[in-house]
Amino acid sequence: MAKRITIRPAEGKWSVRAGGAVLGESSAALELDEEGHAPVIYFPRGDLAMAFLEPSEKSSHCPWKGDARWFSIVTKSTTIPDAAWSYESPVDGAGEIAGHVAFHESDQVTVERI
Predict the structure, then answer these.
(1) Kindly report the CA angle at 50 between 94 and 96, in degrees rounded to 5?
(2) For 16-52, how does the pLDDT look when each residue is reduced to its tens digit (9 = 90+)?
(3) From 45, 103, 105, 109, which residue has the greatest number of CB atoms within 10 Å?
(4) CATH number for position 108
(5) Residue 65 sits in which domain range?
(6) CB 71 within 8 A of CB 56
(7) Which H/E stretch holds residue 18?
(8) CA–CA distance from 19 to each of 60, 79, 87 (Å)?
(9) What is the pTM of this model?
(10) Rounded to 10 degrees, what is the CA torsion of 37, 39, 45, 47?
(11) What is the spatial distance between Cα 20 and Cα 53, in angstroms, rounded to a whole number?
């Protein structure tokens, strides 16, 4: 059975924090739900402090979303490698996430509804 994805507006206001810094807050985030995975929040780039994100060497490919560009998070206190990704030109069926960034949650990166 092929995997499927669902993209919808994320309810409420969302925040992403890392290394003691607020990287962004958004009321226009998207929630991507992919079979077999936990839902992921995608933040519009315009709602993020993109100065904290430095392009990394990592790349990946998903047949249902396309080629992902990865970023490291750089704050005053730390650098968190390969902690965020973006689909610059998603495949058909995932176009809504173009211009958005998602974050790998960890003990250093928090994505939460506020």
Answers:
(1) 15
(2) 999 888 999 999 999 999 988 899 999 999 999 999 9
(3) 103
(4) 2.170.150.40
(5) 5-113
(6) yes
(7) strand 14-18
(8) 25, 8, 24
(9) 0.93
(10) -160
(11) 14
